[in-house]
Fold each of these.
Amino acid sequence: VEDREALRDEHLAMRAERRVAREAGREARLEGRIAFMRTRLGITDAQAPLWGAFAESLRNNRLERVAARPGPRDPDAGRPPLVERLERQQEMLAARANQLNATIETLTPLYQSFDDEQRRTADRVFRRVGNNGFAMRGQRGERNRSWRGGARREFRRDRSRGPRGSGQGFE
């Protein structure tokens, strides 16, 4: 029994370490996206205060999502009842609506300060607003769309050649 508890504690500690590393990676990706957006949009000195407020709202949204995530569950507890799961989902959606409102409040004056070229760039670069803020072109949805089309057809074509392109097929 003691060995089992020790293994469980070790496993939970390893999961906590991975969670910390994952969060650090997510934070670095967000900062990279913010830097990319600023460069790509060509934010001017006059727009810098508005940009700062917008970037800060993206950072705050991320921090709120991290804080709202439930902690590790007890593996022995089982799945929460349906009503609890729905209430949790309702809380998460309400929090997301508040985050979107904050983002809109900071993005609106920034977007109004853009010249025509910056607006076209913003509309092109930020085609999709994802669950975790702005997904830039080439992330998530864009990447998945390309898989649905050509890449899958290529895979089917290669599959007919058999294992490792041996020409034997899968029949």
Amino acid sequence: SDEDNLRFRMTFRKHHETANGRGVELVDWPFGAVRRILVPTDLTSDSPETVRCAIHLGQDLGSRITLLHVYEPPIALGNTIGDRTTIGLLKDHRQVEEALKALGASVRAAYPNCEWILRSGDSGLTIVEVACELGVDLILISSHHRHWIDRYRQTNNIAHILHHAPCPILT
């Protein structure tokens, strides 16, 4: 109801391009209007805590939850590309896929209105790309897991996500 939406309103910073460059605008946003939540996950042992938060938020708001893992293949140094490397990468990708399926199944058992997506590529670019494709209303990112944020900070992905996301980000 409108009364509930008023209780769950928040202000977020909306970054946008202006004629004079990059601008920031404070926007009042109805928290109750969240119908799709994107939850990027690194599939570490810390991931379930963020997923639990997403489930609670999804239940409270009636939102669809999408778990996203972006697979970034290990960087091969030197001339090591060959059959053994290819088999190793395929095995690694399959293990990641199985871990995401297991996490997705556990979420679906607790909250059926969910899905999971596995993509390959640059994490920052892919998170924003998927958020745009799905028309998500909120991205829920864990920022207190030191190794997770370090992974994104190393390639400046967190700045890219913050500046290009089509919706608010809850950390």
Amino acid sequence: HKQSLARYLSRRLTNNRLRTAADHWIDAHNAPLATLKKGYFDTDNPPVREIVMHAIKRLATRNVDRAITVWAAQSKRFQFSDNDLGQIKRSLAIAAASQNHAERIALLDRVPPANVDDKVEKYRIRESIETNAWEHLVRWTKDEPVGSTGILRWRYWRARALQSLGKKPAAN
């Protein structure tokens, strides 16, 4: 329903450039890989970058490995801001964690501090416990949580991680 509404609204746009961008955005939502191969994406401009980012995020929900590969190529073709790069790293990490991807810890570790939110924090805790990635958990919990994770829970998992690494005095 949302896509048909978006398609309907895009047809009502009077500006051809905006209508074209909206159509590509909808296509990127439905078929990210195929859409990124279109000539529209030969030019670097803000709407194109936004659509590329959306396509990568959508692709990541389906196939993390393919999204990483496509992103590696796309990130060199366009002038993404640091925040854009961080958003994509966050999306790749969350998709990897939710799909139990082998590289989920490494991808969660690559999320810049400015892009860490409640969801990233929760995945970091959950995945580091599940995979015994205690070194990562110690590093990730050295500062206060930015999300809704309670400070006592945060300190508990930091202490458990330190204890698991044999650093008992620091955990007490």
Amino acid sequence: DRKKTVTALVLDRGFAASMPGDVDDIQSNYKNVQEALSGLADVTLEGDGIAAIAYDEGSQLLQDVTTMGSADNPFDPARLSIKNILVGQQFKPSGATSIGAGVSEGLRVLNAARPVYDCRALIILSYTKENHGPWLADVEAKINLPIYSVGLGLPQNISAAELQAISGNSG
């Protein structure tokens, strides 16, 4: 039997930490987040799960763990629900940026899914600098699974060192 995996995508929707006047970059990076979520929904294996969490100065569970159906079915409700998260108003860029809040919620969701899935992973997609607590450093001691981070944009415009430290320390 293949081991089943659940992945929590922790998605940046912060606005305030971006460079002043850089609206084009914000919109471009927001589009990159949309494409990443849709792409993950496309390639996730049948029986594996995806959860989506957005963060700005707080966190919001956009989609609890959803088990993917057949990739051959273009109308699979689980895949469509993940892809449609970013279409609604609940994911418009706003507020400050607390990556720690998003990671904390992602860990909570993944730890709750432990009995159903053999493997767990958290992926952070960030395009702004962390400027609000809880900070990544505040949640580092709670990390009990692999974390991967993707910084969208130039290193000076994102929390590159913090993202590298948190993903480098987790597996």
